[in-house]
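Researcher: Let's do a round of design. I'm pasting the structure tokens now; please hold your answer until I've finished.
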């Protein structure tokens, strides 16, 4: 009987800890004119498409990202100095959301979103985007118009967010031999 009481108390304590950790998530903040992208340091409102904010343990304000893809990449990079407390993404299924104006307060937890991957839409930094929706139906409606497939966060592979993006201007570039030769020519010009 004594062991059963101890197990019951331990289970209750564990449940209380889980509730505390959920309650301890920082709340998303409104995206204002002062918000700048973590990587680009450009004003967030100047870029179309969905956005993200990442809260780091011990820091009071989030890092904003001009593209959802960049925030997910940030989460998966091994170089982080702080643990991530929460990631929020724009709900592009929100009634007021548009590509030009994704909304300032329609944030959902990244782990709860359905992401459209491989659509014909590019994000705020002109690269492929992960387009988040709060519902599977919202993601499917977007897919009907723009293509792609709906995935949950755990279905998004590292290659989808960490691989280099090839631009049309890159097509046909064989190697850096020409660049290296031009650099050598510049160096020779400075020597003489």
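Researcher: That's everything. Go ahead.
Model: Designed sequence:
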């Amino acid at each position: 009987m004594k062991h059963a009481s101890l197990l019951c108390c331990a289970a209750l304590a564990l449940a209380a800890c889980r509730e505390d950790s959920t309650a301890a998530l920082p709340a998303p903040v409104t995206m204002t004119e002062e918000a700048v992208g973590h990587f680009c340091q450009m004003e967030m409102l100047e870029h179309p498409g969905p956005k993200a904010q990442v809260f780091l343990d011990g820091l009071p304000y989030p890092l904003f990202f001009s593209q959802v893809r960049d925030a997910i990449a940030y989460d998966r990079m091994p170089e982080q100095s702080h643990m991530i407390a929460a990631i929020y993404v724009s709900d592009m299924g929100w009634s007021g959301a548009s590509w030009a104006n994704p909304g300032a307060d329609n944030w959902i937890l990244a782990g709860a979103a359905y992401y459209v991957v491989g659509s014909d839409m590019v994000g705020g930094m002109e690269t492929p985007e992960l387009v988040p929706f709060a519902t599977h139906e919202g993601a499917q409606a977007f897919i009907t118009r723009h293509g792609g497939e709906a995935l949950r966060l755990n279905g998004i592979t590292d290659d989808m967010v960490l691989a280099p993006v090839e631009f049309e201007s890159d097509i046909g570039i064989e190697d850096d031999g020409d660049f290296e030769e031009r650099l050598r020519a510049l160096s020779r010009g400075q020597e003489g």
